[in-house]
């Protein structure tokens, strides 16, 4: 009886390949061809099941794998790979005209585009044009993610300087109206920490600060911070 049980146990081990466990190698950051060879040597099969684009990484580089490196699997296990796309995706060109320099750069980076050269021309101190390889790029045009966009920005020279209104205690609508009356525009909107109800906040900080003397070019932007105001 014991001999029979032992034989059955050994057969079960052979059938389930308990003695043929492999450790998954780390193939991340490898070219796909190298990753396939490494996995094959380890007795595993590479399967590409997805791709995505990561700027600065060579095309067909392995970005991630499943199961992860160090996992124990049976021989001939499929290892699923995510690789870097050959071509970056297309994104719509944003409309940067009339934005301040810092606003335009922030919008470009949010879209996955890179700010390039700053070209100065006479005019209001805002973005006057957006260029790709020297040509104006219309808003909405599809461009490759990761491309560099040059900005044409007014020097502010020869433009009218205006005072900066005090926005402290105002809500957004009041601030926009006050800025428009002063010939300025609303810039970035920020929230102080701990804000729970955004409908009851007021402006508690601004940049540039208020000034009764003409100090910024007409058309410039003023950033604001919302916070708790009053009881």
Short key terms for the protein model shown above:
231 residues, alpha+beta, Trypsin Inhibitor V, Chain A, four-stranded mixed sheet, three-stranded mixed sheet, 16 strands, elongated
Output the CATH class name of the largest domain: Alpha Beta
Question: How many distinct helices?
Answer: 4
Low-confidence stretches: none
Fraction in helix? 10-25%
Q: What Rg do the Cα atoms give?
A: 30 Å
CA-based shape: elongated
What name does the CATH topology of the largest domain carry? Trypsin Inhibitor V, Chain A
Q: Under the CATH scheme, which architecture of the largest domain would be assigned?
A: 2-Layer Sandwich
Q: How many β strands by DSSP?
A: 16
Task: Give the termini distance in whole angstroms.
Answer: 86 Å
Q: In this structure, how is the largest beta sheet organized? A: 4 strands, mixed
Structural class: alpha+beta
| pLDDT averaged residue by residue | 87
**Strand content range:** 35-45%
The helix-strand sequence is: HEHEEEEEHEEEEEEHEEEE
Within the largest sheet, what's the order of strands? Answer: 7-11-8-9
Describe what you observe in this structure:
This protein has 231 residues and is an alpha+beta fold. It folds into 3 domains: 2-84, Trypsin Inhibitor V, Chain A; 90-154, Trypsin Inhibitor V, Chain A; 161-227, 2-Layer Sandwich (Trypsin Inhibitor V, Chain A). It has helices at residues 2-16, 32-41, 101-110, 172-182, and strands at 21-23, 45-52, 62-66, 72-74, 78-84, 90-92, 114-121, 127-132, 135-136, 142-144, 148-154, 161-164, 185-191, 202-207, 211-217, 221-227. The longest helix has 15 residues, at 2-16. The chain is elongated. The mean pLDDT is 87.
């Amino acid at each position: 009886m014991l001999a029979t049980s032992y034989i059955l146990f050994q057969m079960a081990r052979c059938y389930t390949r308990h003695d043929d466990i492999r450790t998954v190698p780390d193939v991340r950051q490898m070219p796909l061809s190298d990753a396939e060879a490494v996995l094959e040597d380890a007795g595993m099969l590479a399967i590409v099941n997805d791709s995505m684009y990561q700027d600065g990484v060579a095309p067909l580089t392995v970005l991630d794998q499943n199961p992860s490196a160090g996992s124990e699997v049976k021989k001939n296990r499929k290892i699923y790979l995510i690789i870097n796309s050959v071509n970056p995706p297309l994104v719509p060109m944003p409309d940067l005209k009339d934005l301040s320099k810092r606003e335009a750069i922030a919008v470009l980076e949010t879209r996955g585009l890179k700010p390039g050269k700053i070209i100065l021309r006479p005019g209001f101190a805002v973005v006057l044009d957006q260029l790709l390889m020297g040509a104006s790029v219309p808003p909405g045009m599809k461009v490759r993610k990761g491309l560099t966009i040059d900005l044409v920005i007014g020097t502010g020279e020869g433009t009218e300087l205006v005072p900066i209104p005090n926005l402290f205690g105002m809500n957004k609508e009041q601030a926009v109206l006050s800025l428009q009356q002063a010939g300025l525009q609303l810039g970035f909107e920020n929230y102080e920490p701990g804000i729970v109800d955004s409908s009851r906040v007021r402006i508690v900080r601004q940049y540039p600060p208020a000034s009764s003397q003409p100090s910024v070019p007409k058309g410039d932007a003023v950033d604001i911070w919302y916070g708790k105001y009053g009881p």
